[in-house]
């Protein structure tokens, strides 16, 4: 099957974006994995599929696959690329769209300066929402990994996140502890592991070991989750600059029951065709 694709990125978190409206797309996990492979395929952290929506109140359906071929619920950097893709391809004339994901509607908006703001929905802390195994809901949980115990905030931005505060993000044990947290038995659907350094009440530095992709240059939902966790713990203000290895994002959250807003760039790199 010959497929047209667009290579995009948000802060170096890179995507293969497929238009599933103009072309019929049915891909097995093996084909998706091959596309994501940086040596034998195109190479990316996630594959994003644009489809017609099922819900009457949505403009598009957004499906997300990690580089390991698994389908997941949400991708923040991808959401910014999604609205740029459908607008640039002429699939819509709207600059603000309603997008159906596996865990609800998100609303990305193209700004006049080329940045994209996304209403990422309301974060959830319920153990079943994540899912996470614990005796009861708390602000932080002690998680045992190998010979260490780390305190993590656990929440869902549509997808699951475990965020810990570290003294220095550069020396944090991301490569070693990341996979142990990602696959910890208390996360039945695995988890994205965030390592957040608090620089001040309005700025954090963040690295994320992503479920199904490993450490990425940036993670949009990870940035939302880290800021929400920091605000919930009284460590951060309502608007925070998140510095990642790929650049920075602005995250806003007004507190419990409110949606999270993320602002950052979306970049098209090149167009191509692949036989899968
Ligand atoms: N890079 C993304 C998150 C992609 C999905 C994640 N790895 C998961 O498995 O939940 C982002 O920008 O949010």
TrEMBL record:
<protein>
    <recommendedName>
        <fullName>Diaminopimelate epimerase</fullName>
        <ecNumber>5.1.1.7</ecNumber>
    </recommendedName>
</protein>
<feature type="active site" description="Proton donor">
    <location>
        <position position="75"/>
    </location>
</feature>
<comment type="similarity">
    <text>Belongs to the diaminopimelate epimerase family.</text>
</comment>
<keyword id="KW-0028">Amino-acid biosynthesis</keyword>
<feature type="site" description="Could be important to modulate the pK values of the two catalytic cysteine residues">
    <location>
        <position position="210"/>
    </location>
</feature>
<dbReference type="GO" id="GO:0005829">
    <property type="term" value="C:cytosol"/>
</dbReference>
<feature type="binding site">
    <location>
        <position position="159"/>
    </location>
    <ligand>
        <name>substrate</name>
    </ligand>
</feature>
<feature type="binding site">
    <location>
        <begin position="210"/>
        <end position="211"/>
    </location>
    <ligand>
        <name>substrate</name>
    </ligand>
</feature>
<comment type="subunit">
    <text>Homodimer.</text>
</comment>
<feature type="binding site">
    <location>
        <position position="13"/>
    </location>
    <ligand>
        <name>substrate</name>
    </ligand>
</feature>
<feature type="active site">
    <location>
        <position position="75"/>
    </location>
</feature>
<feature type="binding site">
    <location>
        <position position="46"/>
    </location>
    <ligand>
        <name>substrate</name>
    </ligand>
</feature>
<feature type="binding site">
    <location>
        <position position="66"/>
    </location>
    <ligand>
        <name>substrate</name>
    </ligand>
</feature>
<feature type="binding site">
    <location>
        <position position="192"/>
    </location>
    <ligand>
        <name>substrate</name>
    </ligand>
</feature>
<keyword id="KW-0457">Lysine biosynthesis</keyword>
<keyword id="KW-0413">Isomerase</keyword>
<dbReference type="InterPro" id="IPR001653">
    <property type="entry name" value="DAP_epimerase_DapF"/>
</dbReference>
<feature type="binding site">
    <location>
        <begin position="220"/>
        <end position="221"/>
    </location>
    <ligand>
        <name>substrate</name>
    </ligand>
</feature>
<feature type="active site" description="Proton acceptor">
    <location>
        <position position="219"/>
    </location>
</feature>
<comment type="pathway">
    <text>Amino-acid biosynthesis; L-lysine biosynthesis via DAP pathway; DL-2,6-diaminopimelate from LL-2,6-diaminopimelate: step 1/1.</text>
</comment>
<dbReference type="Pfam" id="PF01678">
    <property type="entry name" value="DAP_epimerase"/>
</dbReference>
<comment type="function">
    <text>Catalyzes the stereoinversion of LL-2,6-diaminopimelate (L,L-DAP) to meso-diaminopimelate (meso-DAP), a precursor of L-lysine and an essential component of the bacterial peptidoglycan.</text>
</comment>
<keyword id="KW-0963">Cytoplasm</keyword>
<dbReference type="GO" id="GO:0009089">
    <property type="term" value="P:lysine biosynthetic process via diaminopimelate"/>
</dbReference>
<feature type="binding site">
    <location>
        <begin position="76"/>
        <end position="77"/>
    </location>
    <ligand>
        <name>substrate</name>
    </ligand>
</feature>
<dbReference type="GO" id="GO:0008837">
    <property type="term" value="F:diaminopimelate epimerase activity"/>
</dbReference>
<feature type="site" description="Could be important to modulate the pK values of the two catalytic cysteine residues">
    <location>
        <position position="161"/>
    </location>
</feature>
<dbReference type="InterPro" id="IPR018510">
    <property type="entry name" value="DAP_epimerase_AS"/>
</dbReference>
């Amino acid at each position: 099957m010959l497929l047209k694709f667009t290579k995009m990125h948000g802060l170096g978190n890179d995507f293969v974006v497929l238009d599933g409206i103009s072309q019929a797309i049915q891909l097995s996990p093996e084909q998706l994995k091959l596309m994501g492979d940086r040596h034998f395929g195109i190479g990316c952290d996630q594959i994003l599929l644009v489809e017609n929506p099922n819900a009457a109140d949505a403009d598009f359906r957004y499906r997300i696959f990690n580089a390991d071929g698994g389908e997941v619920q949400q991708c923040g950097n991808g959401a910014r690329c999604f609205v740029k893709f459908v607008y640039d391809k002429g699939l819509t004339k709207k600059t603000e769209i309603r997008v159906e994901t596996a865990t609800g509607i998100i609303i990305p908006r193209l700004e006049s300066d080329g940045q994209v703001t996304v209403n990422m929905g309301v974060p959830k802390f319920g153990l079943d929402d994540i899912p996470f195994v614990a005796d009861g809901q708390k602000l932080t949980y002690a998680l045992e990994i190998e010979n260490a115990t780390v305190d993590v905030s656990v929440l869902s931005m549509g997808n699951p996140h475990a965020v810990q505060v570290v003294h220095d993000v550069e020396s944090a044990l991301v490569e070693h502890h990341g996979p142990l947290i990602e696959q910890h038995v208390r996360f039945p659907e695995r988890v994205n592991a965030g390592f957040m350094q608090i620089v001040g009440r309005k700025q954090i530095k963040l690295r994320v070991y992503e479920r199904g992709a490993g450490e990425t240059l940036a993670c949009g939902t990870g940035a939302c989750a880290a800021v929400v966790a920091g605000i919930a713990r009284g460590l951060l203000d309502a608007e925070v600059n998140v510095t990642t290895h790929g650049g920075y994002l602005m995250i806003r959250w007004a507190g419990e029951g409110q949606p999270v807003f993320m602002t950052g760039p979306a970049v098209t790199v090149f167009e191509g065709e692949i036989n899968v």
